[in-house]
Amino acid sequence: MMTFLGIPIQALMGQLLLGLINGASYAVLSLGLALIFGLLNIINFAHGAQYMMGAYIAWMLLAYAGVNYWLALVVAPLAVGLIGVVIERLLLRRLYKLDNLYGLLLTFGLALIIEGLFRQAYGISGQAYQAPRLLQGGINLGFMFLPLYRGWVVLVALAACLAVWAAIEKTRLGALLRAATENPALVRAFGVNVPLLITGTYGFGAALAGFAGVLAAPLYSVNPLMGSNIIIIVFAVVVIGGMGSILGSVLTGFGLGLIEGLTKVFYPEASATVIFVIMAIVLLIKPAGLFGRNA
Amino acid sequence: MAEPLLSVRDLRAWYGESHILHGMDFEVRQGEVVTLLGRNGAGKTTTLKAVMGMVGRRSGSVTFEDTETIRLPSNRIARLGIAYCPEERGIFSSLTVAENLVLPPVIRPGGLSLAEVHELFPRLAERADSQGTKLSGGEQQMLAIARILRTGATLLLLDEPTEGLAPVIVQHIGAILGQLKERGFTILLVEQNFHFAVGVADRHYVVEHGRVVDCVLNSQASTTALQGYLGV
After folding, report:
1. Nearest beta carbon to residue B105 from set A178, A182, A192
2. Contact A183 B102 (CB under 8 A)
3. Does residue A293 lie within any of the structural domains?
4. For A94, which DSSP code?
5. Range of the domain at A202
6. Cα–Cα distance, A93 to A70 (Å, whole number)
7. Chain A contact present for B90, CB below 8 A
8. Is residue A30 within 8 Å of residue A241, measured between CB atoms?
9. pLDDT, tens digit, for every residue of B22-53?
10. What is the CATH number of the domain that holds B28?
11. What does the pLDDT look like over A74-122, one tens digit per residue?
């Protein structure tokens, strides 16, 4: 059997792939968080709940309406985005003039309420969600066995991140978004409906979280706590990458997923904490984050 | 005499608890260049921001082309045809020069084309791909003025466009304002540079403690009285 530093290649590759998959979720989630924080200056603690809702809506669509995975991949993020729009219009909008701690508290409270509702309705044991037939099974790459669905998740998450990045960096809407992130009052004084831009951005960020949730549904069991389990790690990712940096959050998301995977191979005891250790070190050395601008 | 394009009556404005404008009264007619002169802290910048709807709270009356704007948000006011160039220039660092230039949406036809803007400011075409804030101070000022010429706005609010710039650039900006006036733009200008103001304006309002205390025609402006107001 081939080995690398005494570790079987199969095991190494398997953990790297798992790391990449986790990294894909981190990247998509932290991308949405970074977008929302950049423009709204709100640390969206409801992001995990929105991720969980994406997974649950996909499961509900299948269980109650027979809607397949592919359609759910579109419909569930739209639904979560719509819920995000309502949250922004009804609640967040009232907080912009206050310290951003209030936004954090409000979204944290919302996350607890949403989680509680789903626990009430479905318990905590979780529901299974099958991968679509097209992506069941896997292929043997010679050095490892690649389950098709996992490969798909990595690719589609990467594509989504690149598409969002391109939309922000290369389009007119993206330029408006970047400008409004820097100086919303001036952009508004140019005749741009900045409040609408803000609503759209929050809705889009929530939809991204929902999208990540649908992608995750066949990987893990769909349960009400899946959001709060992942969101703490994602916040660490965002802190490491730098709040508000789009590309930074994507690269950091994938990078930290890989590091986590490697740690599982070489020193499994630290795999649950390695990201937080890195976060502490980054905060000491570069408080604005690896890709952040100094405030 | 022409109808006023912009008419400001008893305009009061607050930032939080502090009351900055105490009843400004002035008007700007179609095609005029009018300055607000006054010392630091007199309320000139706040007046432009209040016209634009960018202060916390304001009262009184601001009409533009007979539309009352006092209750409108700033994006609606801009869409009536008023464009604003802030004192700090407001160039976006995450945008290139070209992106900065086309950022303000076109609100009605009649603005300058991009080619015409580049003709006025050739340097902006040369530096199109640079980061906006990598330009020199003078170039950033040019960019801040250039980007509001494309939108079709007819009233330009310019806040101290000459501040901190070399004399040769101040001269250039003066020449540009002259050309803009010839093209039919109406300009409300905040200035501390008295000589610059006299070179470009038709009339001057003198602002003190958030009120207009005097209005002087440019033809009678080269008196020591105005300089006395400014303390120069």
Report:
1. A192
2. no
3. no
4. G
5. 3-285
6. 33
7. yes
8. yes
9. 999 999 999 999 999 988 889 999 999 999 99
10. 3.40.50.300
11. 999 999 999 999 999 999 999 988 888 899 999 999 999 999 999 999 9
